[in-house]
Amino acid sequence: MANPPVRFGILGWANIARAFVHDVAPSPQVQVVAVASREAHKAAAFAADFKLLRHHGSYRAPLENPELDAICLPLPDGLNAEWATRAADASLDNACTLAAITRSACLGQAMAL
Question: Which of 42, 78, 81, 82 could form a disulfide with 109 if both were Cys (CB 3.0 to 4.6 A apart)?
Fold first, then answer.
């Protein structure tokens, strides 16, 4: 029996988020189901473009969504550590961009998780 797919939410809608959705689409092991933005209309447009089930007008909302297993964080470097910590506090696995964890301040915070 196959494992169910990991259900991802994405915080952010820029090019890295678009690439993530595109790259994982062929995989039966990953399902992107939600996107969040600080600007609700941008999340709604992204969700429509990729036929996602949910969109949120805040980064906090997906962290409270019991339908999600993990969060993708293609955010600006200054926001990654904060939202990675919040995702971990919400018991969600998270994927930061490499640039986020190579900065020493973010690396220290990520290692503390």
Answer: 81
